[in-house]
Write a structure and sequence with these properties.
By secondary structure, this protein is mainly alpha-helical. It is built from 4 helices and 2 strands.
Amino acid sequence: MEFELFPVIIFAAIFPVVIGLFLRLPKLIIEIKENKQWTFDWVRFIAIALPSLYIITMSILPYSSLGEGSISIPEVILIGSPTVTTIAGIVFGYVLLDSFKK
């Protein structure tokens, strides 16, 4: 038998994002009920969500066929920690929904 590690890594990166989305969902539902115009907070998205997405991407990339051998070892050790990836995923999911404002 052969064990595929890539699906496990994808799950470990995507699951915290879903948790972050669920944490912000109740407030988004309350905001949907208001009758105001929708806006998108680009500053918050660029300043917080994009660096979080970068951390998530850098934790997945060394295990994919796209990034094999292209990432240096210190960068993988620094960014590839499961705790850092989990926190970045929750922050990304929360800020993604938080950027939509009414």
